[in-house]
Amino acid sequence: MELPIKLDLNGRAVQLDADPGMPLLWLLRDVLNLTGTKFGCGVAACGACTVRVDGQAVRSCMTPVSAVLGKRVQTIEALGTPDKPHALQLAWIAEQVPQCGYCQSGMLMAAAALLDRKPKPTDADIDAAMTNICRCGTYQRIRAAIKRAAGIAANGGLKRPAHEKTRLAAECGRGCGRAGHRLERVATAFAAGQRRPALAGGTAGRAGGIHRGGAERLDQDIGRRVGGVGHAAQ
Fold first, then answer.
1. 134: closest CA among 1, 232, 219?
2. Looking at the predicted structure, is the pLDDT value of residue 23 above 80?
3. Exposed (0-12), middle (13-18) or buried (19+): which is 220, by Cβ within 10 Å?
4. Are β-strands 72-74 and 3-9 bridged in parallel, bridged antiparallel, or unpaired?
């Protein structure tokens, strides 16, 4: 039976009629058309459906709508904006975390909840908080990106050490050709919500496989390009 539902969703008041026993995931995707949050397992095991409720990471596939009445719900769509991307979105691109991209919105929301609780997380903190499953196995990149994001949040922007920029520039000059262009196309595709960006050289959809040469060029333009990171695989 449908009843009046009120909640704070991504900073705005939402009122609608819905079944209070409906999983929050279906309310978000099927009713409100917020498709950045993914269905993975349906039993709260994989974490693809993770959102934040009053700041805490929650598996929305097993959370009934009645459990979030009057609470603050945040989905991946509100994590950052094209003009002001979240530190995690910057770090995710810099570390080239996404491969297939399907789990990434849940990963990002879980990581955001972690950094809010612990701005400088240890490896143990990350292991305890990041229980989401990545079938592409990008766990080491996720760990590196969370640590990078902690530095970004503390320092006010994405910065690369001078020696790293020099190394990347040298690698780019040693025959990687259009690698910088390819990396930018990956970032643009993920920002646009495309699951498998078409790339020259046959590496479609595999951001983790792109050469990192030319990444400093991406840094200069990253704020405009990564506002939708985590919306991949809609």
1. 232
2. yes
3. exposed
4. parallel
Rounded average pLDDT over 25-46: 96
DSSP letter for 210, please.
Answer: S
Alpha-carbon span 224 to 85, nearest angstrom: 8
Asked if 56 and 109 touch (Cβ cutoff 8 Å), the reply is no
Cβ 90 vs Cβ 149: under 8 Å: yes
Structure tokens of 177?
């050709």
Percent of the chain surpassing pLDDT 90: 61
Q: Rounded distance, CA 21 to CA 142, Å? A: 34
Sign of the C-alpha dihedral computed for residues 101, 146, 135 and 204 taken in this order: positive
Q: Tokens in use for 62?
A: 């097993």
Six token digits for residue 154: 């503390």
Q: pLDDT class for 179, splitting at 50, 70, 90?
A: very low
CB 161 within 8 A of CB 169: no
Residues 6+ apart with CB under 8 A from 224: 82, 83
pLDDT digits (tens, 9 = 90+) for 205-214: 333 333 333 3
pTM of the model: 0.69
* Residue 156: other Cβ atoms inside 10 A: 8
- Number of residues that make up the chain: 234
